[in-house]
Amino acid sequence: AAGVIQSPRHLIKEKRETATLKCYPIPRHDTVYWYQQGPGQDPQFLISFYEKMQSDKGSIPDRFSAQQFSDYHSELNMSSLELGDSALYFCASSPPGGGRGYTFGSGTRLTVV
Amino acid sequence: TQLLEQSPQFLSIQEGENLTVYCNSSSVFSSLQWYRQEPGEGPVLLVTVVTGGEVKKLKRLTFQFGDARKDSSLHITAAQPGDTGLYLCAGARVEETSGSRLTFGEGTQLTVNP
After folding, report:
1. Most B CBs within 10 Å: which of A50, A102, A103, A110, as the mutation test of the B interface?
2. What is the rounded CA–CA span in Å between residue A61 and residue A55?
3. What's phi and psi for B81, nearest 5 deg?
């Protein structure tokens, strides 16, 4: 069965650089979520999109932006990177109806040096 | 303040023992999910409970949703080394609305020793 695909798997950036993370949801899933997980911490919700519109916003810094495209894939753009942005970034998708079962991708490990 | 309090945070047991992980909140959730996460990987959904008092079984794992839909528990019978991992509870607070966020508990790191 198709899963949530995230790319890249690993990313190393320098401070003040920009990064773009991509997420391809499961086909026919209409909602995409982005989470950030620091070392030893639980995932923190950043933002979500339903039918290509932002549906919920969490603790996402102003330096970050995201969007969902017509093919339902989503991109998380991160600018002016800081050391504290180093974390695992997960994308999840859910089918129509919401809240009953999220499928997470394998994540992108971002390291800011 | 953590919306979902998960306990214990760390648990190390011997193979064959039983264990229970708790997830508590003062908030009501429309659904509560349990995930298991391996290092460097995304959380994998184990179960979703939606009805107060609901009990679901997945082989040696038993999940229960509290009557008031504020708490949940995960019980593992006869734990095996393959059960080792991080167990996360997560709640959805918005009823049947697409795009509703999940709020995670802090996780329980379970180690089952052979």
Report:
1. A102
2. 17
3. -55, -30
Name the residue facing B42 among A44, A100, A105 (closest C-beta).
A105
B39 touches chain A (CB under 8 A): no
Q: B1 exposed, middle or buried (CB, 10 Å; 0-12, 13-18, 19+)?
A: exposed
Residues of A in contact with B104 (CB under 8 A): 42-44
Interval B44-92: pLDDT, tens: 999 999 899 999 999 999 999 999 999 999 999 999 999 999 999 999 8
Q: Could you tell me the pLDDT band of residue B94, with boundaries at 50, 70 and 90?
A: low
pLDDT tens for A78-102 read: 999 999 999 999 999 988 766 567 8
HEC string of A21-53 equals EEEECCCCCCEEEEEEECCCCCCEEEEEEECCE
Say if CB A74 and CB A87 are below 8 A apart.
no
Contact at 8 Å (CB) between A106 and A47?
no
Please indicate whether, in this complex, the C-beta atoms of B100 and A99 are within 8 angstroms of each other: yes
Rounded to a whole number of angstroms, the distance from the CA of B41 to the nearest CA of chain A is: 5
What is the residue type of A19?
A: A
- The yes-or-no verdict on residue B106 having pLDDT over 60 is yes
